[in-house]
Design a protein that fits this description.
The chain has 8 helices and 2 strands; from the N terminus they run ααααββαααα. By secondary structure, the chain is mainly α. It has a single domain, classed as Up-down Bundle (Rhopdopsin 7-helix transmembrane proteins), CATH 1.20.1070. The longest helix is centred in the middle third of the chain and has 41 residues. GO terms for molecular function: neuropeptide binding; neuropeptide receptor activity.
Length: 332
Amino acid sequence: MSVSELWVCSEAASCYNSMDFNSTNCTSSDQFLLNPDFYVILPVFYSVICAVGLTGNTAVIYVILKAPKMKTVTNLFILNLAIADDLFTLVLPINIAEHLLQYWPFGEVLCKIILSIDHYNIFSSIYFLTVMSVDRYLVVLATVRSKRTPFRTYRAARIISLCVWVLVILIVLPFTVFAGVYINPDDTERKSCVLSFPSPESLWFKASRIYTLLLGFAIPVSTICLLYAIMLYRLRNMRLNSNAKALDKAKKKVTVMVFIVLAVFLFCWTPFHLSTIVALTTDLRTTPFLIGISYFITSLSYANSCLNPFLYAFLDDSFRKAFKKMLECRPA
């Protein structure tokens, strides 16, 4: 089961406590089972996300690695973002299989791998978007002051990207440790891949949600919002006080693209993090409607992994031209 499904147990069941979705205390409850068609429609939707995301992100990776003109600092961060999305879509078929089977048949090791990659998807995307926002801020600031950025090199971007991956691995490590296969005592054949916290489980569950909310959303998003606020303020002042243009056409396009990619990410992931706040502050009764909402929120966050390639294609002329050039058939 994907850990992004915050409000749902693996067999769409209620838990002993409304705060303990994804805990080892999930027990079967037929009254919360959804329409059987739902368990077919959802894997189909996930399959579309997987196919589109894998194709699109692989194309982005191929173009950036093969086209010499695409080797820029911003594109290197985009490359890492595409790798993170590709990594997630590669393991999505296992989540699809679990939905169809309605139990976890793949063992303990694969459970830890899948839940870890699912968490990589939560943290890596927002951290690379934060780095891209910092990069845009430095470029805009340097342009406003008519200065160069000698430290902004491709080599420095590679080092920063490596540091981001190391940071994400360290952040996700606790989830890897607690990931495991839970066997329902009432039905030993029904296994679930969940986060198995020690006692008191309710407290550990709340701590894990707060941990994810702060490190995976609140802190990086606040940083991004502050950077863009300062950036817009400086550009506004420059328009008022100078006839010089703050950014040339190419830099404007890249900045707008990064902003739109960020906006789409927030649109897809904000409901997930808001659901965390709701789960931590309220005591909602588990109902089929609530379970349906949780799956919708999960699907929306998954969809973000296949949207970015389309944004690059529509917003980045250099990417579009490089991709078309790669598709050209040349005689040997």
